[in-house]
Amino acid sequence: MRGAQPVKPVAPRQRSLIRAALALVVIACGLSLRWYGFPLGLPAFVVKYGGSLLWATMVFLLVGVVLPRLTRSRMTAIAAVIAIAVEFSRLVHTPWLDAFRLTTAGALLLGRIFSLWNLVAYAAGIAFGVWIDRLVGKRRVD
What we know:
It contains six helices and two strands; from the N terminus they run βααααααβ. The chain has one domain (about 5-135). The protein starts with 6 loop residues before the first strand and ends with a strand. Strands 1-2 form a two-stranded antiparallel sheet. The chain is mostly helical.
């Protein structure tokens, strides 16, 4: 009977591809939640903050796609800075920025209304991203 297999880290290029695929899955889940959550009868809280959680997960994963050699703690820090900057950018109102926020892309990427609760959802989303990344970050050697 064989013992436990050693774990070998995934190469940076392969790690980027895995993170990109995961980000696409998270994007699909987030869009599905936003578009079909209310018709399926999900509570507004789940649709609103579930979307924010998934958005932050996507940001974390995309940071890892762009910068695959970073440690997870640095990816977490960068994703948190991006999330905080985007949330606080909602307090800035210029005609062109407000016009962009009224588009579907603007609403999904930047949001429209400032909420400190979004920061909580973002923290949970980044933690979820770290968890997912750890799950797929190592593979068994055959």
